[in-house]
Amino acid sequence: MDIIILNELNKSPLVPPMEWRRLLHRGGFRGICQLTFFTYYSSMYRIKSNTIVKCTIMCLFAGIISLLCLQVGFAQTTQLFRTYKTDVPAKIPETYEAIAAGKAIFEKRCYYCHGIKGDGNGPVAPRLDPKPRNFKRNEYKIHSTELGMLPTDEDLFRIITSGIEGTAMPFWSTLTNEERWQVIYYIKTFDKSFKEKETQKMISIGAERPSSPESIKRGKELFKAAKCFLCHGEDGRADGQITTTLKGEWDFPFKARNLSKGWLYKGGNTTKDIYRTITTGFNETPMGSYADYLTDDDRWHLSHYVKSISHDMKTEVVLKSKLVEGDLPAGPNDAAWEIANPTEIPLAGQIVASPRLWLPSIDSIRIKSLYNKEDIAFLLEWDDRTNEQDEVFSDAVAMQFPVKIPEGLRKPYFAMGESGKSVTIWHWRDYNESLQTKESESEGDDLESANDGGTNITEQKEAEEHQEKELKTEDVQEEKAVEKVKEKAKENYKDFVTVKEMNAKGFKNLVEQPSDSQHSKGKGYWKNGKRKVMIVRSLITDDKKVDIQFETGKLIPYALAVWDGSNGEIGGQKSISSWYYLTLEMTTPRSVYLYVLIAIIMAASIQFWVVGRIRRFPPKVPAEEK
Fold first, then answer.
1. Interacting residues of 242 by C-beta distance below 8 A, sequence separation 6+
2. How many Å apart are CA 294 and CA 292, to the nearest integer?
3. Of 94, 231, 557, 622, which has the maximum CB count within 10 A?
4. Residue ranges under compositional bias (Basic and acidic residues) (predicted)?
5. Where does a domain end: 263, 279, 309?
6. In the listed set 195, 228, 248, which residue is the last one of a domain according to the structure?
C-alpha cells in the first residue's frame, strides 16, 4: 500500500476523485488515513496564506478519521465499505436501447473477469479464486428464490451494488442506478432461461428470531445433526473431510466457506443473510437448501450458531507486546497467552517478483506478543485446512524486521528489504521442525551414553584458553550476559527447535546467518484447521550488525509471510503483509501516580490559599466619580 500511495503522490499534487475510489477499495482504512494526510498536505501546499482555511481543513479531516475509527477501529479492512445492500430503486424499462447501453458498460468494465462472451473466461480469470461467474449457466449463488431457480432482477442489482465478499467481485457504486439496470439487462441475454419467463418462487425470511444462549446451543446441535461439519469442519474452518477430499484428491473447484471469518461470507454476514443462504443454498455447488430438512425456527437457530463462531477482522497498525513478570509461555497452547491482545493482519499473494503467487490460500494471520526482561515471544495463528505437506512443499511462516530500527518514516522495502537497507528474517518451517525433533531425539540418546562418566579434558582446556582471550576484549561483560541469556533460553525451551535466521537486501540477495548466530527458537501446533507457531528470542543479541535489537519506547516495523504446503507454495510463492509496527509496552512507575497526587494537592492548596486571601483582604473598589 505504501508503494501505491507513493506512486500516486508523484502523479499529481491532488488525488482525483476516481483515484480516491480505487485506492480506498484496494487499501481499506489504512488507505483512507494515508490519502487523508496526503490530501491535507497537498492542500496546504496551495493554501499558504489563509490560516483559517488551513485549520478548517485539518479539523475536517481529523473529524472524518475519528468517526471512522469509532466505527471500526484502526486499520480496518474494506469490509467497512462492502455491506450487502437490501434497498433497490425502481427499475427502468428493459428496452433494446437499455440492453445496448449495458453491452457498452459490460465490455468496458466487466469483460476482464467474465469474458467478452460472458462465459467467465476473461483475461484475468486464471488468476482468480473463486473463478468469475459464467453468465451462460445458472451459477448465481446469491438469490432470494428457491434452489435451482434464476435470481430476480433485484437480486442482481444488489450484487452489482454490494459485490461479493471473499471474491474479486467489487461493489460497483461508481455506476449510476440507470447504468446498473442497463448492464443487468445485458447480462441476462447470455442465458436463454431468462426469456422463458418461468415462475420464480420467492423465499420468505420473515421476522428474525432473537439470539440467545439456548438458541446458539440448539444451533450447534443442528450443525452436527445436519452434517455441516463434513464440509465446514468441527470448528467451521473449512477443514471438513468432504472439503479436503474434493480439493485434495479430486481437484473439484469447490471449497467450503470458512465460517470463522465473517468478512468472507458471500452475500453478507448478518443473521438474515446467513438464514437466506441456509434456506436457498448456492446453485451448482455442494451447498444445498435446508428449507425441506430444517424447520423455520431451526434455520434461525443454526444461523445464530454460525454467526456466533464467526469474527470480524480487527487490524491494529501497532502490535503491543505486553510485559510479564517471570517466565514467558512454555508453548503455543499455554494459557498464559490469554493475557496478550491479538491483532489480525490481512495477507495477499506475493506478486512483486517471480515466482509469483496469484491464488494464495492464506488470507490473514493473527499475532500476539509477550516479553519479559530477557526474551520476547510471538504467537502466530492462521487457518490451515489440511496440514498436508512434504519435504518440498511445507507449511511455513516468516517474521521480518529491519536490522536497524529506522528513526524516521523511511523503512526498507517490505518485500525482503533493499540494497543498503538490510532486513533480518526468522523462518519457521514445519517439515524442518519435525526433522530436527527426530534428530535431536536420536542424538540425545547417543550423547547421554557417550558423556556418561566424565567431561572431555581437551575440550575443557580449549574452552579455558578461548575464555582467556575473550577477557582481553572490551565487550567481555556484554558477551557474558548474552551467553547467560542463551543458556537460560535453552533451559526454558528444550522442546523448541531452531528457527532459521537470515538477512536479505532484496529478493536475490538472501544469506543465512552462521550457526552460532541462530538465536531464535520455535514450536508449532496444528488442530482442527488452525495452526499455531510460537517463536521466542532474546531481546538483545551480540550480533547487532545482523540482528534486530528490541528496545522499549520505539516503534519497530515488522512484516509477515506464510506458506501453505498443500497449495504448492514455496520460495517467493507466499502470502505476505506490508509493514506493521511493534512496540514493547512499559509499566507506569507507581511514583508517577504519587507525583500526580502531590500536584493535585498542591494546586488545590494554592487555589484555597488564594481564595482565602481574597476573602480576608478584599481589594478596594474605587468610588465612582460623581
1. 230, 231, 256, 286
2. 6
3. 231
4. 459-479
5. 309
6. 195
Q: Nine-digit cell at 109? A: 468494465
Residue 110 sits in the same domain as residue 231: no
Count of structural domains, the chain: 3
Sign of CA dihedral 181, 184, 186, 191: negative
Note whether 229 and 240 are within 8 A (CB): yes
Please list, in sequence order, all residues whose beta carbon lies within 8 angstroms of the beta carbon of residue 615, skipping any fewer than 6 positions away: none
- The residue segments making up the domain with residue 516 are 313-432+492-613
Q: Do residue 175 and residue 121 come from a single domain?
A: yes
**pLDDT per position as a tens digit, 267-308:** 788 899 999 999 999 988 888 899 989 999 999 999 999 999
Same domain, 420 and 541: yes
Strand partners, 398: 427, 561
The pTM is what? 0.72
Dihedral angle over CA of 159, 165, 168, 172, nearest 10: 40
Residue 219, in any domain of the structure: yes
Retrieve residue 295's grid coordinates.
424447520
Record the cell numbers describing residue 455, joined without a space: 567431561
Rounded to 5 degrees, φ, ψ at 424 are -110, 140
Q: Cα separation of 620 and 622, whole Å?
A: 6
Closest CA to 1 of 262, 346, 319, 316: 346
> Which residues lie below 8 Å from residue 139, measured CB to CB, with a gap of 6+?
120, 133, 283, 284
**Cell of residue 480, nine digits:** 557474558
